[in-house]
Every structure is written in C-alpha cells, then in structure tokens.
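B., you asked whether I could sanity-check this one before it goes into the benchmark set. Here's the sequence:
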Amino acid sequence: MKTVRRLIYRQIASHVGMVAAGFSALFFFIDFVDEMQRVGKKGYTLMDAVWACTLEQGAHFYDLFPIALLIGAIIALARMAQTSEFTILRTGGLGPGRALGLLAVLGVAGAVFVAVLGDWVVPWTEQHITIHRAKVSDKNGLNLGHGGAWLRERRDDASNGAHNVTVNVGQADGHGHLGLIRIFEFDRKGRLLRRISAQSGEIESAKGAQGIKGSIWHLQGVTDTVWHNQEMLSEEAVLKANQLIVESEIASLDWFSSLTPMVVAASVLPPETMSTSALWRYTEHLANNAQAAQRYEIEFWKKAFYPLVCLVMVGLALPFAYLHARSGGMSLKIFGGIMLGISFVLINHISSHLGLLHHWQPWLAAVAPSIVYLLLSLSAFVWLVRYR
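And here's what the prediction gave me:
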C-alpha cells in the first residue's frame, strides 16, 4: 500500500507543481508588464517593480492552487487510466473506498497548505504590496475613497456618561500614520459634544485607566471644538454665547480610544490583508458598535471554508481515474473536467457577492458552492464505479 500511495502522490504532485509553476510564471509576466507603467515615477525603480510582482505571487498562488491541484490531478489520473496503470492497481486490490481515502488525504494536505497561505503568507504579502503601492500613488497614502474610512465606538465614563464616538480617517500609509483625522463625540441623545480635527496622527497600543485595551492617538495640528449643552450650564453661562461653543488650536494632543490598532488597520486596509482571526475580531467589533458587518462576515466565512475547496478539487478529479481510454474522447473529457473546476471557482467567487446583495446568511453564501460540487463529484464517482 505504501508503494501505491507513493506512486499516486508522486504523479499528482509532479503535475500539480508544473501547472502551478506555469500559472505563476504567467501571472508574474502580466503583473510585471503592469508594474512597468510605474517605473521612473517618484523614484520607482525596476527592482521595485520586481519586488511588487514577487509579493503579488502570494495572493495569486493562494487563488490558483486549487485550480492547479484540479488540473494536475486530472492529468495524472487520466494518464494513469490511459496507460492502464490504474487498472492494474484496481486488479491488485485498490478498491473505490481506498482510492477515495488516498485522494482525501491528499486533499486534506492541500487544505492545510492553503490555510497556512491564507492566514500567514497572503496577509503579509498583501499588507506590504498595499503599502508599497501607496508610496508611488498620486494620492497621499492609501486610497480610502472620497469619504475616507469610518470607525465607531461606544463609551461610558463618569464625565460624559454613555456616548458614542465616530472617527473618520482620510489618509493612511499602513504603518499607523494617519492623516486628515476627524473625531466626533455625541451624547446618548445624539447631540454633538465635541469635534477634534487633526492634520496627522500616529497610533500606538495602550491600556486605559480600568485596564481596557485600546490605543493612544498622537494627534498633530489639532482644532478642538467643544459644544456645551444648555442643560449642563447655569443661567448666567447660557447668556454668554461664547461659552456654548469653545474652539481652540492645539499643536499636539494625545487622545485615548478603545479602538485597537488592529481595528484601525482593518478599517483602512483591504480585507485581503486580514487573517481569519483578524476578520472574526473585526466583525465582532462592527456588530458591537451597530455597524454593517455582512461584508466582513462573508469574507471571514469564505476564508474559513476556502481550504475545503482542495477536497472538492480532488473529488472532481477522482472520476477520471475510472474512465476507459478505449471509449475515446479522453482529451475532451479532460477539458470538460477542467472547465467544470473553473466554473466552480467562478461560482465560488460570485456567491459571496450575491450573498452580499441579497442578504444571505454569510456562512451559507461561502459554503454552498463547495457542498454542491462535492456532491456532484461524489455522484459521478459512484456512477462510474457501479455502471462503468
């Protein structure tokens, strides 16, 4: 059995490696042509372009590995069927259940590999490529859109009681340096209490007075505007209009927030730069502060279930080992299997967008295509074993 396992795994691994290398070379060339448009602008050199293309290979390999696994497994198993190697293995005692178990182990190994890529390699490469592109962008830092990035937190302290804080960040560079910061504090009735505008700021981790984890925002170029509620002032103070609105210019200000650096980074960086655990913590933060979290919930479930795609791919490839070369049309069948796998990848990507549009359950939008195609592959496998 060890010899059979080594034979099948070696055949599949070699073909998967060749397909993955071909895809990586193709996408490296495409990315390099695109990066050449930036060479010579703002000190962007040829080595910067090569480094950017190298970083982009992490996300490309993460997306393409299941397809490479499918194509490599189909070619390897179909070739073994054409040369009658798999027929000899079946005659020697390799039953359908054992063959399914062998490929299931290979699919689990691929799933672990994809999980490691998605949780460690891809977030690191995506963060660095985002920061790298921000350095040569015409804008000052990351592109946060016209409205910037919005964050929200709820506070309950002795001075102001229960109130809400909304933060808007207009610029960021991915290293904790922010620009065009606006902070709005509202009381429990939704009345504006304070507005802080800052030209720039930096974030560092800190703990509050009660041991609450958060961050200290070191703000520069601050305009601090305070609105005093008439209910909190005496009758004489109400008569003085200059005491209702107090505005002051401050060179620097340290502002404590319960927003951790991870939450701030998640709001200014794309979801692709986040690991599964970071996505989970960020969705919890959004839900606790009454913000829309469905987009990040779908991204979380999609990343959590994505390694299972490898099991679906080896399941789709297994029926090709039971095809008969003498019946003809083997090349067409292989092409059909590859197209079926590519259709699964497309549907898997589209389902997340459909789930966001139609407000489906996030976990259902993420796992439904995998379940459907896995059942389809197992049904084809059972039909071939019983009737062919």
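One thing to flag: Residues 2-137+297-387 form one domain. Otherwise nothing jumped out at me.
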